[in-house]
Amino acid sequence: MTETFDHIIVGGGSSGCVAAARLASEGGAKVLLLEAGYSNRHPLLDMPPGIFKMINGSKFMRYHHTTPQAHLDGRVHDMTPPGLSVSGSSKNEGGEKFLDFIEKELMPSLEKQYRANGMIILEGHSSGGIIASYAAATRPAFRFVLSLDLPAHLGDNWIPQHMMSRTEKMASTPLRYVSLESRFGWNDSTWGLFTKAAPKNWRLARQKLDHESHVSLPFVGLYLGLRTLFEDYQINAAPQSPTTRTLAYYRDMEKSWGYPVIPPAGLIRQVIEDLGIEGQSKPASDAYRLLVDGYGAPSDSAEWKKLLSDLAKQPPLTETVEGLLATPAPRISDARQFVGEWRGADWINEEDKHEIRLRLRDSAGVLAGEWVSYPEPGVEIVQKLTYLKVVPNGLDFGFMNGMRPRGMLLHEGKFDGDVLKGLMRFGGVRLVRPPGMPGPPTVRFELRKT
What we know:
Blueprint: E1 7-10, H1 14-26, E2 31-34, H2 50-54, H3 95-114, E3 121-125, H4 127-138, E4 144-148, H5 154-169, E5 176-181, H6 188-197, E6 203-208, H7 217-229, H8 244-252, H9 254-257, H10 265-277, H11 281-295, H12 301-313, H13 321-325, H14 332-335, E7 340-347, E8 354-363, E9 366-374, E10 381-384, E11 387-391, E12 394-400, E13 408-416, E14 419-427, E15 443-449
Parallel strand pairs: 1-2, 3-4, 4-5, 5-6
Antiparallel strand pairs: 7-8, 7-15, 8-9, 9-10, 11-12, 12-13, 13-14, 14-15
Helix pairs in contact: 4-5, 5-6, 10-11, 11-12
């Protein structure tokens, strides 16, 4: 008997199954979906315990295989490194050739086309974690490796043994390795020995995610793993002040990464703008060159060049953020009268005052302290003072602005009887406002020692 179909789809992968379902359900078509394999009329397929019989090399299972790929030299078992058997595979599979392809062809192409700057991550889940960890153990080119639910127990801890071997053979090459685990993973004692033997320039992390399953782990694991691998690269990890230290932080990372590190493009742009506000012409120009070298000329390069040209024509600031931060704290012998807690208020409008406190203390012979504000009932904000200077009949103090512009919020106080009063201003920056826009509001403060 001959049976006819409206559509024949070859391949029951994710795309083939979706196409067949859509054609059958939405169009009412009669669809034939062909997939490689044997008949499903086998008793083991209907018995839950049958999985244990089929999983090791069964003709019904397609685990750890791809179809032979012409552009990958016809390889099939690309997830298995040589010397380890995974779910019935031989110990002489194509994992080494697969890594050759990634290292010698794919990675150079990524560097050339996408300016990867060396930050290429090899990530693997389950059997993929085996080949990823094997690459970390044997190839110095793979410096960022994320392993998700690695079955580390296979082959009597075959992968951990190779990882331990790298601590001796490639100790000088930096490595960042993260293992996130649910069902499988390292055992505690082996991981402890590994981290103890690892060189100081390696960054290793391991976390057990008990609330995830082997199947669900990749979804949250990719995010957590990447965040852990690059936690020191994130914008918030870099020092914000003085601004000249921000890019220097990434230059210093070369020691642990093994090659020059290009900061995030968005951060470089912010730094250029902040350096301009601080009157730092040469560092701003250097930062722009770094942006171009790392990411190519930006589409708004004409605007950046004009900004830098205008900045170069301006006179340097006589008061800089770096200079303010470098001001030595007063010796306690010169500032003893200020030690204690001061209470008062600051305001822009007389009818809208906010409670403030100034806490000053003796810290190893010099004056130190905090500024405390209460912008709303029950809300307390504490700022460490980074600038203190005793002046005739008063005290100047300040802390870095918590947002841009990264200037110093300077409070310049004079005594009026027993009250320390004055104004707050931005220090170390040049604020240029557009024509017609009013200047910053005047902030006043008063404090009395309790």
